[in-house]
Amino acid sequence: MIGFAYLGALLISSACLLLLDWRYRLFYWRDPRAAVIVTVIGVGALLLFDAAGISLGIFRRGEGEAATGVVLAPHLPLEEPVFLWFLVLCTMVLYTGSLRMIEAGRRR
């Protein structure tokens, strides 16, 4: 069961971000179509960067007890695309939330 700790942490953290997103309508709940497009492009670009790093021997899959051990491609564990989705989600929630706070500050 410990083999799913990292994946579980990513999913729980993502769920918390999605709750913030839902509550304040920041990203997915503000404009779902645009959010999906941004997410697909962001995760896709980061996966291409990962593929380049793997092919150049820069990135290698490490062994860890917290990882599932499921590999999607050589040196590309299952957790990597989930992490990249979490990274895009986190970035966009922070970005859109920051914009909203700056706009609210200007109105005062």
Gap from first CA to last CA: 51 Å
Uncertain residue segments = none
Computed structural class: mainly alpha
Q: How many helices?
A: 3
Helix content: 55-70%
Overall mean pLDDT: 92
- Rg from Cα: 16 Å
Shape: elongated
Roughly what fraction of the amino acids lie in strands? under 5%
Number of strands: 2
Order of helices and strands: HHEEH
The main β sheet shows up as: 2 strands, antiparallel
Strand order, largest beta sheet = 1-2
Number of domains: 1
Explain what you see.
- The chain is elongated and about 50 Å long.
- By secondary structure, the protein is mainly α.
- The chain has one domain (2-107).
- The protein contains three helices and two strands, in the order ααββα.
- The relative contact order is 0.18.
- A hairpin with a 2-residue loop joins strand 1 (71-73) and strand 2.
- The model has no long low-confidence stretch (mean pLDDT 92).
- It has a two-stranded antiparallel sheet.
- The protein has helices at 5-24, 32-55, 79-107, and strands at 71-73, 76-77.
Keyword list:
108 residues; mainly alpha; two-stranded antiparallel sheet; 2 strands; 68% helix; elongated
Question: How is this fold's topology laid out?
Answer:
Blueprint: H1 5-24, H2 32-55, E1 71-73, E2 76-77, H3 79-107
Antiparallel strand pairs: 1-2
Helix pairs in contact: 1-3, 2-3
Give a concise summary:
The protein contains three helices and two strands; from the N terminus they run ααββα. With 108 residues, it is mainly alpha-helical.
